[in-house]
Amino acid sequence: MLLAALLACHASDGTPVGATLDDGQILVGEVTTDTLTLVGELGRLSVPLDAVGMVVPVEGRTLADSHGHVTLWLRDGSEFAGAWDAPELQMAIAAGGRRVPVELPTDRLQALQLRADEQWPVDDRFRVQTLWGDDFLVDPTQTRLTLQGDFGAFELTLAECVYLEPVGAQTGPWRVQLATGTVLVGRLPERLTLVPALGPDAVSVPLTGLKRISHGSWTEPGESQYDESEQRPAPPRMAAPVAAAVAAEPEAQQLAEPGLDGSGGWFDNRRLSSSKR
Questions:
Q1: Which of 213, 251, 59, 67 is nearest to 136 (CA)?
Q2: Whether 145 contacts 188, CB under 8 Å
Q3: How does residue 34 score in pLDDT terms, banded at 50, 70 and 90?
Q4: Cα angle at 20 between 15 and 251, to 5 degrees?
Q5: Which one has a higher pLDDT value, 130 or 246?
Q6: Neighbouring C-alpha atoms within 13 Å toward the C-beta of 84
Q7: Residue of 76, 70, 30, 32 lying closest to 52 (CA atoms)
Q8: pLDDT tens-digit profile of 130-141?
Q9: Counting beta carbons within 10 angstroms of the beta carbon of residue 246, is it exposed (0 to 12), middle (13 to 18) or buried (19 or more)?
Q10: Residue pLDDT, tens place only, 175-219
Q11: CA-to-CA distance for 154 and 61, rounded, in angstroms?
């Protein structure tokens, strides 16, 4: 697995970033790149930089603690996990009237933050969680599924679905309820091609790695996820083996807090993270 993010130092037109190190140093400067490329269990994901909020270790306090494995947070709270295989990171820091090139000791990196606002979901979404720690929102109007059952193949958009659940193992038949009231049972492809609401153009998720796919998303504190004048969609039901696996999941390890907070325009994942629990 590989996270390749060539962040080159240029004299201008850079993107502001802040890097928090394990000894309390905070480096604020600029990098120049269009995308971050994450390669992991979901394949090769190219993420536009303007969709990224933060990069943090998967576990522990530094990238060294997590053996180069990182979580890429998007501005809407979506998370993608992978490994940073080539962690060279260069940035330009303004000091003494000039831009000073600095190569970060990324093994000591606790957080890399972008100057970006939270982008709370406002539209209807599906939430997808994998066994590898990915947790992201899907645009249901752009995501299509093929369900092969007793009555042939049904080409569906995720927007037509109220819930999806495996009948036993994830690789076995799936039960899908449509908004019309129709309930179908059939087989899905071995990999689902999903369109995230923000970030990569598409994500290919193997059924064997799918922990949960459910209707809905996280919401900004104090706001309702749905229009109260409309009937809320039925909550997704989960087959016993999947529900048991979720219940047995240990609490996530607490990571070190980033050095830059949202008051300076820096992305801070703490409110989004709290809303996702």
A1: 213
A2: yes
A3: confident
A4: 110
A5: 130
A6: 26
A7: 76
A8: 999 999 999 999
A9: exposed
A10: 999 999 999 999 999 999 999 999 999 999 999 999 999 998 998
A11: 47
Amino acid 145: pLDDT? 95
Find tokens 């928090």 and name the residue.
Answer: 20
Rounded to whole angstroms, how far apart are CA atoms 222 and 201? 31
Contacts of 232 (CB under 8 A, 6+ apart): 226
Rounded distance between C-alpha atoms, residue 72 and residue 70, angstroms: 6
Maximal CA-CA distance, the chain: 72
**Which token pair is 88?**
């060279």
Number of H helices, E strands in the chain: 2, 21
Selection from 75-89, 121-135, 221-235, 239-253 with the highest mean pLDDT: 121-135
Strands 98-103 and 174-178: unpaired
Question: Tokens 């039960």, residue?
Answer: 175
